[in-house]
């Protein structure tokens, strides 16, 4: 599992899950599973196109590996938006969060340590 911390103009893009019912309403990093023959970074670029209709350039790994409830592990990278305006194609809602707003949405529990790492990253980059 890979996720993208898309940072643009000092804000982080957060996405609200539409399904499955037990995760709906939880906020997450856009992303998904890595397909055979693909690198983790390539999977992120593909998922951002599919889910959001945007092009991103993948940056650095951020946060520790997050164990998920299903036994998988999620790795998150920073990403910058290079083309398009994010559209909620598979999510119920998208929000750009400033550093002060980062914890205003109910993140999926596994994501919280990574959101904290993003907070430090935004602080350092001003
Ligand atoms: N994409 C994503 N999934 C997360 C995050 N945090 C978290 O616990 N998950 C969980 C939710 C799902 O149970 C699992 C994988 O989600 P997913 O988006 O790849 O998978 P999916 O089952 O909807 O299937 P698909 O897109 O691969 O078809 O990871 C996160 O920040 N981003």
UniProtKB/TrEMBL annotation:
It holds the Pfam family NUDIX. Residues 1-122 form the Nudix hydrolase domain. It is an enzyme of class 3 (hydrolase). The keyword Chaperone does not apply. Signal peptide: none annotated. Its cofactor is Mg(2+). It catalyses: 8-oxo-dGTP + H2O = 8-oxo-dGMP + diphosphate + H(+). SUPFAM superfamilies: Nudix (SSF55811). Its EC number is 3.6.1.55. InterPro entries: MutT-like, Nudix_hydrolase, NUDIX_hydrolase-like_dom_sf, NUDIX_hydrolase_dom. CDD domains: NUDIX_MutT_NudA_like. Keywords: DNA damage, DNA repair, DNA replication, Hydrolase, Magnesium, Metal-binding, Mutator protein. Coiled coil: none annotated. Belongs to the Nudix hydrolase family. This is 8-oxo-dGTP diphosphatase. It comes from Actinoallomurus spadix.
